[in-house]
Amino acid sequence: MGSFFERITEDPETGARAGILHTNHGDVETPIFMPVGTQGTVKTQSPQELLDNRVQIILGNAYHLYLRPGGELIRNAGGLHKFMSWEQAILTDSGGYQVFSMSDLRRLSSEGVRFQSHVDGSQHLFTPENVTDIQRDLGPDIMMVLDECTPYPCSFEYAQKSHELTIEWAKRSKDRFGNTKALFGYKQFQFGINQGSTYLDLRFKNLEELLKLEFDGYAIGGLAVGEPKSELYKIAGLVASQMPKDKPRYLMGVGKPEDLVEVIALGIDMFDCVMPTRNARNGTVFTWGGRMVIKNASYKSDFRPIDPNCTCTTCRNFSRAYIRHLFSVGEVLALRLATAHNIHFYMELVQKARQAILEKHYKAFKEAFYSDYKVIETESYSKPIKRRK
Amino acid sequence: MGSFFERITEDPETGARAGILHTNHGDVETPIFMPVGTQGTVKTQSPQELLDNRVQIILGNAYHLYLRPGGELIRNAGGLHKFMSWEQAILTDSGGYQVFSMSDLRRLSSEGVRFQSHVDGSQHLFTPENVTDIQRDLGPDIMMVLDECTPYPCSFEYAQKSHELTIEWAKRSKDRFGNTKALFGYKQFQFGINQGSTYLDLRFKNLEELLKLEFDGYAIGGLAVGEPKSELYKIAGLVASQMPKDKPRYLMGVGKPEDLVEVIALGIDMFDCVMPTRNARNGTVFTWGGRMVIKNASYKSDFRPIDPNCTCTTCRNFSRAYIRHLFSVGEVLALRLATAHNIHFYMELVQKARQAILEKHYKAFKEAFYSDYKVIETESYSKPIKRRK
After folding, report:
1. Which of B272, B304, B329 delimits the end of a domain?
2. Residue of chain A whose alpha carbon sits nearest to that of B78
3. CA pair distance B160, B158, nearest whole angstrom
4. Is the overall model pTM greater than 0.90, yes or no?
């Protein structure tokens, strides 16, 4: 294989790009959405169902997998792919975001971050080095460096200090990555993470330092943590515009269907979000017309599929009335059918976006999307970050 | 198609029989185990997964489906097969057992049984007639008559009175069945249910009356409600021996793998039980060597499949360590993988039993089963029946 990231084309009217990530677990066609598989499973789905919905890469979490079942166990299993029986690509998050959003009593120092497990309250230390080691054990195709994810709002002083720490950690992560080897006979790549809160000058300075370290790809972190949507788009767009064209760009934790359509236009290649899977379990499904709360009583006797034009297994076999019944009596199959549909929708969305980019009419695709899709401002997928203690 | 039930062969050394139930939703090869799909879904499984595990007929519950989503809704959906997207055969229980085991404040009269819904406390009346009508709405291939399921232990007087009521109801059920038609263009069959508690004379008298009504098949009810295993086998065997050879025999609510092996030898053709599905969700799986509590810590680092010789999807793709991890972190996929394996095991068990009957060495099969399978007396699958008020 040639380079890791192959740029195929750019849309002439927007910043949208189409490309391919070449991994030893298959090619990943960008722009790509990565379903979240926090604990070694994309909630409610089997690996075969993910494949059936044309999922090409999933996201795992070093934080959760380190706590349960542990990096050593997954190493002994032959890596996360083998452990969970998933033969396509995997990216693991470093655990930075989880430490800052989930665990109590964390203590930052230049060494790393001490935190209490959200499971049993036990004490742990994440350092740039051991988080790299953990991700060697897990064996994802792509690993992320340890970073500090800043809260919103965030003072300039806090953001400045955090930026410095994040850069120091990025250097140490890169060093450890360079001094260790992949354990399972296939190549691993490492991404740096841009921070700097909503301060553009800090974001740029942070990126400049990151670029010197020459990571395999660059992520934008610290967004979708409560800031206004306009800020998210502005920062993501400006930061992405300063990133090298020949490296993949990953916007972490984003987002709603309309967000994907927006940030693809800004030149983002990769994203992940719990929204399609978590909303499904809460009884909300996505269609090209907008969101549907499928568990609502209005669907009680509605024998049409969720989306009559959808080709997913759920829509080919089951009615709104049946899925609504399953939700109202608390059956697991409800969660499965809604999740499969939402993943199918997200994958179809990025695949259609990619096709539009290849045909060089992404702007028209975006306009067509908005003409059909009813955007509703509802609960956010952003999660406030706990403040530094 | 010829007759509903086709007898193929009998084992020369035991009472075991092999046959076929011909339904408009496919042939059902007996002896057959029917997984329980109480609320229009076999818990955690998709219809495709049931097919993959060679399930030929499932059991639905008129009681649950009448309460939610209601018979009318399922009739409007085109019947239960269409509603749940299951194209093989379905048998529905009359709701008699559920009224007596689940609902409070039930009042028996010769008219029928008044009961409170376990869902919302609302008042309902089941009569032999409306339960037949509900099962016309649901559209199973096989429906059961309304009966009274006696508790254990049960006085002779109680059992005598209950027998009389059950026979009266059976007559009225048969009449209603004869005066109504199948709604969806395929044939429905109706089974009578033998009662009489543990009093053999009552059981025989009850059966004699039932046989006069000429049902399409005969079930043995009121067992597996707390009586000793020896009583269950004795009564099932003696009652089955008095049943016509050319009609299918169904032992309701049984059982563990070893029970299936026993009652097949007694000439039983059909059975259902929540055990494979419910135990799976509690973390217990079945193998030819016996039960395994897969969520136990002893499987933490065990990378073998549940059963290395098993050909089910779970065993072909996932390790004990992975399934144990999924259980310990509370992931839905744990329930799915364990359930699929257990259904596969139960289906393989009855299919191997049938093959042994066809080859006329069922006794040797049964002995071989016991030489491998470690029987453990653990929690019972029987459910005590609430006493008449």
Report:
1. B272
2. A303
3. 5
4. yes
